[in-house]
């Protein structure tokens, strides 16, 4: 009897684990992400300033009242030199958490534009960043910028978004990752390029060289909001 009990217990635990992963997968698949114009522009400007580099940063946002949509309010550009997790990564994340501690925003994802033009795959660094951010936010998303399609705003075609399904990172559909101001996003991005705002953008790498550089890019963000 003891043997039968132990066997049933093991099977029950196995089924419970499978059901848990399935539930996490379904919840992540249902979670939608809505990108603000500011978040969209800052990611594209970061890639435009360093077209020869792999650039990366953090998405900040919050869930809506129903908990089904994550509104990505802005992003924090981090790196264009150091493409790996390091002590500087921890310092950057600590500073970001301090900055948002008193706000309702939180770290909700990670973005990256690869160095090669046609490379739209997740590398080891992106995967490790994604795992790191999952410890902050269960519905974390990884956003990959398509370097060869950056000005395709139809169905957020300039981005490729991934969510965690309990086992691996899977591509989110356009109905789950979209612009919250789709009608004006192209106009705002074009206005940013006309104003050459990418020249003024700073990331955390720049901040490490000169602490007076604002890697939150609050002034640029205000300009984008006013466009």
From TrEMBL:
Signal peptide: none annotated. It comes from the Eukaryota. Coiled coil: none annotated. GO terms for cellular component: EMC complex. Residues 33-168 form the MPN domain. Pfam families: UPF0172. Belongs to the EMC8/EMC9 family. This is ER membrane protein complex subunit 8. The gene is Emc8.
